[in-house]
Amino acid sequence: MQTPIRIGTRESQLAVWQATTVQQLLQKNGIAAELVYIKSDGDIDLKTPLYEMGVQGIFTRSLDIALLNGAIDIAVHSMKDVPTQLPQGMVQCAVLERASFKDILVVNGELSNVSSQLSLASDSNPEFQISNSKLVIATSSIRRKAQWLHRYPNHIIENLRGNVNTRLKKVAESNWDGAIFAGAGLERINLRPASSIDLDWMLPAPAQGAIMVVCREGDTKCFEACQHFHHTDTALCTQIERDFLRALMGGCSTPISALAQIQNNQVHFKGNIVAVDGTAKVEIENTVLISEATDLGCIAAKAILEQGGKAIVDSINHAN
């Protein structure tokens, strides 16, 4: 009898949805798989040598440790949460086709009350600043905060943490005007409220909307099983975005954004870095042939540093 592949997942609704999706893809190809629920870090034996190997991602650490300890065979992550350097002994075995990469604003109350104030800064006039608007917007993301304050410097940003269910509940019970979420996270579990707006002007986190599956290095069984649903275009685009992030300095706690998209055999890349308080932004845009895109992220990072991004990087490093 075939031994099922053990899929590690956190217990949040979104994490379980992602792991179940991978389970179904494996089963579609005749491969047995089962979910293994992994508790938070405090419930796991955190062996020091594993941390020395570089298990650092705050949202991925529990699963990575379980994987390296042999408690599970593969782990499923929101790719934007995965550190750009995987821990020693672990490899990427699949990237699923990307869903929406967009950030959205979930409005607390009537949509018109907020959208009428935000619409003054349109895509045709993106630098228009609202002098009288004093909206209170919640997010725990430094990247989202920086981009929002660059566009709306008079707004107030409040901290909002927790899984998507917890954050939606907090918004509903608050006096905030709204909060920023990743569209894909809410859409995947059918929780996107009607009172929400696509933030088409906001550049996403590198790899936002993509799901990564990892396995132990040398585990050919799991690697080959996951290759059945590996999406090469998404893998290329997210690698470019993550190369950009890594070359600049970054992790998920830095205000660095990137998006690569494939169209007509070309890769179109946009990236930016924004001061934490929103006062400065440097951005870059480039288009190359797919055959020439391997180093696009690193090249874009070098260019953005030369065009004024280094001053922002230095200010962030100094603040830390």
From TrEMBL:
Gene3D superfamilies: Periplasmic binding protein-like II, Porphobilinogen deaminase, C-terminal domain. Residues 236-305 form the Porphobilinogen deaminase C-terminal domain. GO terms for molecular function: hydroxymethylbilane synthase activity. Residues 5-222 form the Porphobilinogen deaminase N-terminal domain. InterPro entries: HemC, Porphobilin_deaminase_cofac_BS, Porphobilin_deaminase_N, Porphobilinogen_deaminase_C, Porphobilinogen_deaminase_C_sf. It catalyses: 4 porphobilinogen + H2O = hydroxymethylbilane + 4 NH4(+). It is an enzyme of class 2 (transferase). Its cofactor is dipyrromethane. Keywords: Porphyrin biosynthesis, Transferase. Its EC number is 2.5.1.61. Pathway: Porphyrin-containing compound metabolism; protoporphyrin-IX biosynthesis; coproporphyrinogen-III from 5-aminolevulinate: step 2/4. Belongs to the HMBS family. Monomer. PANTHER family: PORPHOBILINOGEN DEAMINASE (PTHR11557). Tetrapolymerization of the monopyrrole PBG into the hydroxymethylbilane pre-uroporphyrinogen in several discrete steps. This is Hydroxymethylbilane synthase. It comes from Parasediminibacterium paludis.
